[in-house]
Amino acid sequence: MVEKRNPIPVAEAVKKVLDHAFPLGTETVELEESYGRILAEPIVASSDVPPFNRSPYDGYAIRSMDSSGASGDNRIGFTVIDHIGAGEVSAKKLGAGEAIRIMTGAQLPEGADAVVMFEQTVESTGSITIRKPFEALENVSLQGEDLRQGEMVIDSGSLINPGTIALLATFGYPQVSVAKQPIVGILSTGTELLEVGDALVPGKIRNSNGPMIVAQLRRMGFRCKMYGMSIDRLDESYEVVKKAAEETDCLITTGGVSVGDFDFLPAIYERLGAEVLFNKVAMRPGSVTTVAVANGRYLFGLSGNPSACFTGFELFVRPALLNMMGARKLYLPHTTAVLGEDFTKANPFTRFIRATYDGETATPAGFNKSNAVSSIARGNALIVLPGGTRGFQAGDAVDVLLLGMEEGSGKWKL
Ligand code: AMP
Ligand code: MG
Q1: Could you report the per-residue pLDDT of 59-78, keeping only the tens digit for each?
Q2: Is 290's C-beta closer than 6 angstroms to any atom of ligand 1?
Q3: In the predicted model, what is the mean pLDDT of the chain?
Q4: Which residue minimizes the CA distance to atom 12 of ligand 1?
Q5: Alpha carbons 237 and 310: distance in angstroms, whole number
């Protein structure tokens, strides 16, 4: 008898998965290696930025008071007493009617409180004249105007992007404390599967899910352990899954979670004593997506159908892995878009449609059944159509999840 499964809403399924995350701890990495990692400590400004008053232009540092009354008819002259570039500090202190030639980034000399740009001067040997008065601090980049020492700048749990790296460098972190990354394993199940390099033979297909998931993980900055392919025989599959589950924090299997005669993952979870969080989600594609936990480790049983497999990874695996690292933004970024063409197929379940999104319009990316490969390749987004609704027409406003973005969203918006 076919077992009766009870579909749960996507949001509830995601929450169940996240509730079972266990933290992975932290490690220290070189700053240059930290791109894409999750910060394990907050960044607090260790100094003012900039750390001293400096010139934002190439020009002349002056005392603003000496420029008062300057005009086209009454040019005021200054004697140039020194010349400094960025990184140099003048030993001289400005007196009345004196200027120091200064380049962008150089510390303002003692006594100076304004900078006159080259183009605001008439230069002659050893002196300049100007034709307008300057206010105190005019054309000065002020100490601490960007950040104040002691200010909290970036929260722990943030993704390290190139700007974060610039900040860490600014504050003198040659190493940085980051969340450890989970060890993720991939096993593709199915007697029909061939290696990528194999020639097609009757009844068989090449394993596309395995390499696809490697790339989905790579896109998140993770490496993974490959467990290859296993044929649909309970005992053999059980041994591979058991070993892989012991060696990883998170094992992703593809295929074998449905109710077919050769779908052995449910029996394997049972033998492992794993807690199955759910085995049916009210979504298309991927309603058979199953997530279990054994010994505090995740077992993601994704559907073998490529589009379902892809979607299951993005909806469940991705936030789970980020959550294990204490990341703040777990979800795919969400936006709304104009539907580019009619989508009339009604469905009781929430539908995720691979689509191309151009910043305004989201259009289904071709053949969109759960077994589709082509639309995964063509799409850069998922249109989300709520279940239980009529069909949708071109021009309707729809929810869209964006794929391949560097950083996710902190909110589940659906
Ligand atoms: P299953 O989830 O095992 O019932 O498989 C569903 C469909 O996905 C079947 O048509 C399988 O042949 C196909 N499939 C399973 N695994 C893969 C894979 N690794 N790559 C491509 N297609 C697969
Ligand atoms: Mg199968």
Answers
A1: 999 999 999 999 999 999 99
A2: no
A3: 96
A4: 192
A5: 22
- Contact assessment for residue 219 and residue 268, using Cβ atoms and an 8 Å cutoff: no
Whether the predicted pLDDT of 1 surpasses 60: no
Domain with CATH 2.170.190.11 in the chain: 59-130
At the topology level of CATH, where does 334-402 sit? Beta-clip (2.40.340)
Output the pTM of the full model. 0.94
* CB 34 near ligand 1, within 6 Å: no
> What is the distance, to the nearest Å, from the Cα of residue 319 to the centroid of all Cα atoms in its chain?
11
Asked if residue 94 has pLDDT above 90, the reply is yes
Residue bearing the bigger pLDDT, 360 or 4: 360
Ligand 1 contacts CB of residue 253 (under 6 A)? no
Per-residue confidence (pLDDT) for residue 345, from 0 to 100: 84
- Amino acid present at 376: I
- Largest Cα separation within the chain, whole Å, is 101
- For residue 111, give the amino acid letter: G
Fold held by 10-24+181-324? Molybdenum Cofactor Biosythetic Enzyme; Chain A (3.40.980)
Q: How far is the CA of 355 from the centre of ligand 1 (A)?
A: 22
The verdict on whether omega for the bond into residue 285 sits within 30 degrees of 0, i.e. cis, is yes
> How much is the average pLDDT of 118-131?
97
Best substitution site from 188, 191, 200, 205 to test ligand 1's pocket, by max atoms within 8 Å of Cβ?
Answer: 205
The CATH number of 29-48+152-179, from 3.90.780.10, 3.90.105.10, 2.40.50.140, 3.50.90.10, is 3.90.105.10
